[in-house]
Design goal:
Number of strands: 16
Strand content: 15-25%
Radius of gyration: 23 Å
Distance between the termini: 60 Å
CATH superfamily of the largest domain: Aldehyde Dehydrogenase, Chain A, domain 1
CATH architecture of the largest domain: 3-Layer(aba) Sandwich
Helix content: 40-55%
Number of domains: 2
Strand order of the largest sheet: 10-9-11-8-7-12-13
Largest sheet: 7 strands, parallel
Shape: globular
Order of helices and strands: HHHHHEEEHEHEHEHEHEHEHEEHEHEEEE
Length: 421
Amino acid sequence: MADAETDSTALIADLGRRARDAARVLSGLSSAVKARALDSAAEAIREAAPAIAAANDEDMARARAAGLSSAMLDRLRLDAGRIESTAAGVAAVAGLRDPVGQIIDESRRPNGMILRRVRVPIGVIGIIYESRPNVTADAAALCIKSGNAVILRGGSEAIGSNRAIHAALVAGLEREGVPGDAAQLVPITDRAAVGAMLGAEGMIDLVVPRGGKSLVARVQAEARVPVLAHLDGINHVYVDASADPAMAAAITVNAKMRRTGVCGAMETLLIDRAYPHTAALVKVLGDTGCEVRGDASIRALVPTAKPADAADWDTEYLEAIASVAIVDGVDGAMAHIAAHGSHHTDAVVAENEGVAERFLAGVDSAIVLWNASTQFADGGEFGLGAEIGIATGRLHARGPVALEGLTTYKWIVRGTGQTRP
């Protein structure tokens, strides 16, 4: 074990030095050069689609043999449409406005000095992720567009897919003169490599974990570098007494069943005690193939619902299961979310504007929605292009983290010879 840790530390140190050199190059590139490089990377991914698909087939076969859940298999799977979507995501980032150099604010001091806060890259970003191989491309594209070098450490279940996507992406970048070291993939899947990244002070400026609770908890417990993270997506839809029944059904089904394995999926449905169509709404959800686990009030109305226990209200299922509870109006919904939510994404379905505004103001989550599905919790849907993840903390960035979330700022002061008295 000691040898593995020593080797991993040396490996990450080498990747970090190379990334730091690449970051200095990136900081001097124009927006046009970065855009051309990302367009080239997108095209290279398209050209490599057969090789990427073949690698993913091998990963999927190993994952099935290992008994991965259906949700994890869905995250891992790359078909032709998803490979094209991955390439299109890189191209979309190429076309986004470059945040580097943007003036956040400007002021003139009484002594005549002009002060500006200007966006600059963070430096070297470490991304630690599981299952989803598209993150390899998404994260690299966002980091490069925002002037950051990136060190990518994917999960062992997706190693072949990650390597294939990474090789294509780097080839595309290098065709336009961007150093390949700007986007490096950790070549090993040993857990010691994660520990080495978390302790890489001075080489990695920010770590972003994308994965399950155990990964994020480990990163937050062990990291000696800043962390930008989200925990579970324990997301709620609250259906108010004033909700339109057809809208409530459509949003509930979409929020849970569109893709059950994404972090924006609804896990708990809260229904106002005064809502007149509760049984019908729960039946619609169950008819889609979703297992309903209800509290005593729900089971009294819908006998086919399974009983929910205390753990259900704090569970991110990431599969076709939903817990359902009756609450006393919007105050009851907000109290339940405060007790059991994860500050990720929560939605209210209501025609009563006052109720909706109370929910939007009172729920302390990174994303709150009125009359819309929680599945919109996605950087692309927010017009941000690809995303690094959904941050649920309160510092630096919150919600979908895209280009601006990967920058910091510096003060630029212009004077005319002023000295301080």
